[in-house]
Amino acid sequence: MDFAALPPEVNSALMYAGAGAGPLMAAATSWSNLAAELSTTATQYESIVTTLTTERWTGAGSMGAAAAAQPYVSWLSTTATAAEQAAAQASASAAAYEAAFTATVPPPVVAANRATLAALVATNFLGINTPAIMATEAHYAEMWVQDATAMYTYAAAAAAAAVLQPLTPAAQTTNPAASTLQAAAVTQATAATPTQSLTSLVSGLQNALGS
Q1: 70 versus 97: which is more confidently predicted?
Q2: Which of 51, 107, 134, 156 is deepest in the core (most CB within 10 A)?
């Protein structure tokens, strides 16, 4: 938008009519809380898997489970980082809005300038108000530049803050065929000799867990 082409009445009204920085700060808080939860979950998840695979569960199944869990832990950490960035960007947007709001001429001040001009023009007999009219118009021109500058600065800051790290869904960490493989292993085990049954069952379960 060409803010320089808009009079201060319009630019000031645009800035003062917005929702303010409140929604942006609320978004920043939500993103920050989400980042903390994801980071905590990633730490806890990795700790649990490490404990299980090093102290209570060993073998091929253990290695398969750990390998399957690692991508999910990585996703949690990556998503937590992205959420932290989103929180920072939302805070930056809020700060940019506050700065632009402060730099914008309040609408009542613009309205007062126009009212003063109208009164001066209406009573400008024999050019008596000409100096005051010129000063009022000069002040109005200053407000025009001030508002346009504030809006351009805010637009640039908001555009930069809107660049976010894309979020990706978590990858599947389980094998859809695992339950089928387990069922097949149990069925095969019941039809085999005790020795064959034990060997086949262990092999089938290892395949299911390690897949």
Answers
A1: 97
A2: 107
Closest CA to 111 of 133, 143, 146, 152: 143
- Cα torsion at 159, 165, 169, 175 (round to 10°)? 160
Residue pLDDT, tens place only, 166-199:
888 877 766 555 556 455 545 654 554 554 545 5
Residue 33, H or E segment? helix 22-51
Query: What's the token pair of residue 88?
Result: 């920072």
Q: Are 79 and 38 in contact (CB under 8 A)?
A: yes
The answer to whether the beta carbons of residues 191 and 204 sit under 8 Å apart is no
Q: Which residues touch 95 (CB under 8 Å, ≥6 apart)?
A: 21
Q: Which residue has the tokens 């869990």?
A: 69
What six digits make up the tokens of 77? 């950490």
C-alpha distances out from residue 121 to 47, 85, 125, 136, 202, Å: 78, 54, 9, 11, 98
Query: What count of residues does the chain have?
Result: 211
Record the pTM: 0.71
Residues with Cβ within 8 Å of 46's Cβ and at least 6 positions away in sequence, in order, are 69, 73
CA separation for the pair 20, 105 (Å, rounded)? 16
Residue pair 132/113 in contact by the 8 Å Cβ criterion: no
